[in-house]
Amino acid sequence: xxxxxxxxxxxxxxxxxxxxxxxxxxxxxxxxxxxxxxxxxxxxxxxxxxxxxxxxxxxxxxxxxxxxxxxxxxxxxxxxxxxxxxxxxxxxxxxxxxxxxxxxxxxxxxxxxxxxxxxxxxxxxxxxxxxxxxxxxxxxxxxxxxxxxxxxxxxxxxxxxxxxxxxxxxxxxxxxxxxxxxxxxxx
Length: 187
Hints:
Layout: E1 20-25, H1 32-48, E2 52-57, H2 62-68, E3 73-76, H3 87-94, H4 104-111, H5 113-122, H6 139-149, E4 154-156, E5 168-170, H7 176-186
Helix pairs in contact: 6-7
């Protein structure tokens, strides 16, 4: 038996027309430009609907800036790391500032492909075969191990990037070590 005890300290925000909303976008991930575009669209839509709204980029001292502007709710329009991974959600929860979207744990698990895969497998959801490589070990040895296990072509994906960032399709065995090294160096 599973018992879910739920104690949310952050209460739902009601009567949003009377509240000040910050659309949080931009950020530090490789998806910054996408986030700025989607944040601008959300901001424009809320403004058109007569909400009290400001657009804010994810920078240092986020909580201080939100409190100074007397923000009642944060609409998270961030993409990728430091936005979809639970980090910003955690800061907002500690500061007791309501926000849109998933909570910290759900965000973190969804962003980490390996963690999400393990959960899916644990409950019987089929997932593609994969292997986790040790980025601190000899990449050429990791490439040889992969070649023994998987047929080509292969898809290489960083474990904690959003969207299609860092995705590579490797068609030839000779390209594998180079693509792994590039992926490890970038992500």
